[in-house]
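Anyone up for a design puzzle?
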């Protein structure tokens, strides 16, 4: 079995019959079309539904295949923040996660989603310098606000990998590793999951190896980066010249928080034993 055959494919609803034998994430804008076109045979392979329009008629999905994960993608986080309340009823029958693009004003949507106990996935590599401060504020909210009861990725995944010293990279945490997930665009071309650019000149089967080889060349920023084992060159694609100076500040704050949490957890068995004696 080849690497590609092991992948989950994220496909438009119209392509649901084109990837028989593969686990599927089906994306659509119209819930009524999903209900009409997804058959019981499709459900055997359906991993999740990705809804691209939070303004759509969600009532169509409330009683449809309860328990199926639904990921709602915000197109304009700042403008659509208050529409997150529409997901409360859908949460009763489906695990719901909100995808929030890292664009100006995104942190407000992150806060509201967290108050509604909705898991969040931040989306977007190579953030502009002006977004680093907002990203840092979102990290502080994740680390210190008691309202956060659900994960905010990629913060939660990185925190776990640092605490447990796991060799897991952002490609895995963000579900963009081409050995795991393939995104099929509207033309039928395969690319990285929900990246806003294609990889037509890249071989997805060897993408990770080739990227690592390029970014670890002598004198490169990655070759001396203390965070490479958990980043894996995530912020060096597509622009290999992207400066990671700002994102490293975010990584340092998250790493320091992970070390503090690890130290706190390491004291627990001692405290528990002492109280029992």
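Challenge accepted. My sequence:
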């Amino acid at each position: 079995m080849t690497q590609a055959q092991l992948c989950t494919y994220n496909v438009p609803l119209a392509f649901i019959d084109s990837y028989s034998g593969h686990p599927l994430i089906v994306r659509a804008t119209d819930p009524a079309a999903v209900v009409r076109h997804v058959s019981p045979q499709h459900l055997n392979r359906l991993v999740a539904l990705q809804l691209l329009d939070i303004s759509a008629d969600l009532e169509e999905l409330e009683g449809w295949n309860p328990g199926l994960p639904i990921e709602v993608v915000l197109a304009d986080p700042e403008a659509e923040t208050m529409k997150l309340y529409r997901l409360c009823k859908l949460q009763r029958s489906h695990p719901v996660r909100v995808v929030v693009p890292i664009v100006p004003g995104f942190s407000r949507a992150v806060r509201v989603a967290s108050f509604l106990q909705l898991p969040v996935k931040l989306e977007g590599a190579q953030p502009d310098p002006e977004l680093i401060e907002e990203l840092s504020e979102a990290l502080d909210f994740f680390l210190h606000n008691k309202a956060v009861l659900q994960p905010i990725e990629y913060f939660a995944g990185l925190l776990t990998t640092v605490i447990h010293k796991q060799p897991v990279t952002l490609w895995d945490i963000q579900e963009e590793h081409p050995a795991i997930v393939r995104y099929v665009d509207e033309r039928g071309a395969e690319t990285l999951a929900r990246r806003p650019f294609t990889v037509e000149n890249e071989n997805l089967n060897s993408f990770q190896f080739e990227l690592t080889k390029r970014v670890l060349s002598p004198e490169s920023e990655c070759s001396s980066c203390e965070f490479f084992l958990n980043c894996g060159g995530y912020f060096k694609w597509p622009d290999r010249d992207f400066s990671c100076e700002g994102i490293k500040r975010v990584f340092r704050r998250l790493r320091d928080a992970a070390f503090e949490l690890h130290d706190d957890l390491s004291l627990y068995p001692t405290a528990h034993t002492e109280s029992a004696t």
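A detail worth pointing out: Confidence is low (pLDDT under 50) at residues 271-277.
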